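We emphasize that the prediction below concerns an isolated chain of 141 residues; any contacts that depend on oligomerization or on bound cofactors are therefore not represented. The input was used exactly as deposited, without trimming of termini.
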Amino acid sequence: MTPNPTARWALLDDLEFLQMVGYTHLPEAILRRKIDWHEVVVVALDNELIGYLLLDHLWSVVPFIATIWVLEEYRQQGAGTALLNFVETEARVQGQNILYSSSQLDEPLPQVWHRHMGFEECGILNGHNEGIGEVFFRKLL
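Result of the prediction step, given as a token string:
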């Protein structure tokens, strides 16, 4: 039987993985702060990290998924669902009733994933991401 991916808050011990897979653009001090503030979630399979979710907050209060990413060979195996379920549970515990996310307009697969996971489109920001634009989603918790 194949084990299920499990998500948890990132630890400073996860810093090397996060930098290796995509956080080289963030200064280490900011990444450390985001880990300390519980704004980074990692997902593992058989104790091996395979992905992460970066959480931000709109208006410093409302949870917003800024990035969700899984190693390509582990996609469509439940890692994204594990990350999302973890964030939704934590948001509810903190008294939140809505979660936001977004995807570039030229990314159809992430948009399908959002809709499949219960998000609904709530707006578009044009002229963002070098002119590509961003579609925003929300999910009631």
